[in-house]
Design brief:
Chain lengths: ~400, ~80
C-alpha cells in the first residue's frame, strides 16, 4: 500500500448549466427548493413522438459564446465550455499556472448526435458540398473535452470517457487518478449532454425507458414513487475543478469538499438491464468507501442514480442497503433536473458536494406514494438540513457501468 | 451581373457571417488567411457560400489562388453566370 504517500484531492471550483439554471447558484437554489425543470416540448416535431416533455437548459449556452464559434460547436460542446468557464473562474486559478500540469477529463454519453443528424439532412437535401466543414469536430465525442482544453490552453492531457449515464462520474474518477498518479496538479472534470431532439427521444421511447406523463411534466420524474413510469430526458453540463490539496492550500483556495475516493465496476450482465442483484453497484460503493478510507457508517447521504424507472430505482435501493446500510439519507435530484445522461454524474456530484458543504440534502420531489420496497430514508419533497460529513454519489450507465464517488467535508 | 463593388459587399457579408470578420476590414488587398484570420475550414464555408450567392463554381484547385479579397472578386466577376 502506498496510501500514506498518496495526495489528497479537493474540489475548488464548480460550474453548471442545467434545466434549473444557467449556473451553479441558480441550479442549487432550484434543487433545495424542490423546483422541477421539466417542461412540455413546444417544438413542432414533438407531436410525432410518444414523449413530449424534457428538461431543457434554461440559459442557452450560445448566449455566452462568440456567435461565429457557435457555428462550429455542437450545443453539447457549448454547454461544456460555459460550465467549465464558470468552474475555472470559481476556482480562481491564476492564468499563469503551468498548463503542462492541468488536464481535462470531460465526457459525454452520446456526443454531437444533433450535428450528425442535421448535417445528414443537409447532405440529403443540398448535397455533399454544403455539408459543414465543422461537422466532424462538432460530432466527435471527444469534442467537448477538446474545446474545454482549448479554452484554457491545457497541455496535461485531454480525456473523454464514455460510459453512457455513468460518463461524468467516471470522468471525475479519472481526474482523481490523474492527480494521485502525479500526472497533473489540476483537472477540469465533468460531462455534458444535449440530445433533446427527435431521434434520441424516439430511441429511448422505443426501449420503453421514458416517462410518458406528457400532460404533467413537472410530476413526470418521480424516483421511488409507485407511479414512476420511466426517466425524463434533460440536457446540460456540469464541471468541477479537482486539485491536489497541497496545491490548493498553497494558493489559499476556497475548498468545497474532498474527493476522498472513487470506484468503477461493471455488471457483466446485460447491455442495458442492471443486474437485479445489484452486486456490482454495491461493490462500486464499497470500493469507493474503502478508497476514501471510510466505513459504511460514515456515510450520511447518498445521491442516488435513481432515474425514475420501475426496475432501476429499487435495485439501487437494495444495493445501497447492501453497501452502506439503512442509515444514509438518500435523494434523487433527477426528480427535478431530469436525466442529463452524460452530464448526470457531474451535475449530481455538484449537488452532493454542495450537500456536504452546506449541510443540506436536496429533496426527491414527486415522492407522494413511496414504493413498498422503499426501505431507506429518502429526503421526500423537502430539503433536509443535516450534517453531511461524508456522502456518496452513484452513477450507472447502459452497458453495465457503475461509478461511485466518495465526497467528504473538509 | 454583379459589379466589383457588389461582389465585394456580398463577400463581406459572407465573411462576417461565417468567420466573424468585420465588414469594414474587407478590401481588395486583404489576405484571407494572414490579415482577415480566415482559417482553412472557414475558407471552405466562404467558398461554398460564395458559390451559392453568386451562382459561380469555384473548384477546390482554384481556392489556393484566391489569396486576397481582390483575387476572389476578380474570379467571381470573370466566372459568374
Amino acid at each position: 500500500m502506498t496510501s500514506h504517500t498518496r495526495p489528497d484531492v479537493v474540489v475548488t471550483g464548480l460550474g453548471a448549466t442545467t434545466p434549473l439554471g444557467g449556473d451553479v447558484a441558480s441550479t442549487w437554489d432550484g434543487l433545495v427548493n424542490g423546483r422541477s425543470g421539466i417542461r412540455k416540448l413546444d417544438a413542432d416535431w414533438a407531436e410525432m413522438l410518444p414523449v413530449r416533455i424534457a428538461g431543457l437548459m434554461v440559459d442557452d449556452p450560445a448566449n455566452h459564446i462568440d456567435r461565429v464559434k457557435t457555428r462550429r460547436m455542437d450545443r453539447s460542446e457549448q454547454a461544456a465550455v460555459v460550465a467549465a468557464r464558470q468552474a475555472w473562474a470559481d476556482a480562481g486559478i491564476a492564468d499563469d499556472i503551468d498548463k503542462d500540469r492541468v488536464a481535462v477529463s470531460v465526457g459525454t454519453g452520446i456526443g454531437g448526435a444533433k450535428t450528425l443528424v442535421d448535417q445528414h439532412d443537409r447532405l440529403m437535401t443540398k448535397g455533399a458540398r454544403l455539408v459543414s466543414p465543422h461537422t466532424v469536430p462538432m460530432l466527435m465525442p471527444n469534442g467537448a473535452a477538446a474545446y474545454v482544453g482549448l479554452e484554457f490552453g491545457v497541455h496535461g492531457g485531454v480525456h473523454s470517457p464514455a460510459s453512457a449515464c455513468a460518463t461524468s462520474s467516471e470522468a471525475i474518477a479519472w481526474g482523481l487518478d490523474i492527480i494521485r498518479s502525479g500526472r497533473a496538479d489540476v483537472v477540469i472534470a465533468g460531462g455534458t449532454e444535449s440530445v433533446v431532439f427527435p431521434l434520441p427521444i424516439a430511441g429511448f421511447a422505443s426501449m420503453r425507458a421514458m416517462s410518458t406523463r406528457n400532460d404533467e411534466p413537472e410530476r413526470a420524474s418521480r424516483p421511488f414513487d409507485k407511479g414512476r413510469d420511466g426517466f425524463v430526458l434533460g440536457e446540460g453540463a456540469g464541471i468541477v475543478v479537482l486539485e491536489r490539496a497541497d496545491h490548493a492550500a498553497a494558493r489559499g483556495a476556497k475548498v468545497y469538499a474532498k474527493l476522498g475516493g472513487a470506484a468503477l465496476t461493471s455488471d457483466g450482465y446485460d447491455i442495458v438491464a442492471p443486474d437485479p442483484e445489484g452486486t456490482q453497484q454495491a461493490r462500486a460503493m464499497t470500493l469507493a468507501l474503502r478508497d476514501a478510507g471510510l466505513d459504511p457508517a460514515d456515510i450520511a447521504h447518498v445521491n442516488a442514480h435513481a432515474t425514475s424507472t420501475p426496475v432501476g430505482d429499487m435495485g439501487e435501493i437494495a444495493a445501497i442497503r447492501k453497501a452502506v446500510g439503512d442509515r444514509p439519507v438518500v435523494t434523487s435530484t433527477k426528480s427535478m433536473t431530469g436525466h442529463l445522461l452524460g452530464a448526470a454524474g457531474a451535475v449530481e456530484s455538484i449537488a452532493t458536494i454542495l450537500a456536504v458543504y452546506h449541510g443540506i440534502v436536496p429533496p426527491t420531489i414527486n415522492l407522494e406514494d413511496p414504493d413498498d420496497e422503499l426501505t431507506l430514508d429518502v429526503a421526500a419533497n423537502v430539503a433536509r438540513k443535516m450534517e453531511v460529513p461524508a456522502a456518496l454519489n452513484n452513477s450507472f450507465g447502459f452497458g453495465g457501468h457503475n461509478a461511485a464517488l466518495a465526497i467528504q467535508r473538509v | 451581373m454583379a459589379n466589383r463593388d457588389e461582389i465585394r459587399t456580398g463577400l463581406a457579408d459572407i465573411l462576417e457571417e461565417v468567420a466573424g470578420v468585420d465588414k469594414a476590414d474587407v478590401a481588395d488587398e486583404k489576405s484571407f488567411t494572414d490579415e482577415l484570420d480566415v482559417d482553412s475550414l472557414s475558407m471552405v464555408e466562404v467558398v461554398v457560400a460564395a458559390e451559392e450567392k453568386f451562382g459561380v463554381k469555384i473548384p477546390d484547385d482554384e481556392v489556393p489562388n484566391l489569396k486576397t479579397v481582390g483575387d476572389a472578386v476578380s474570379y467571381i466577376e470573370k466566372n459568374a453566370a
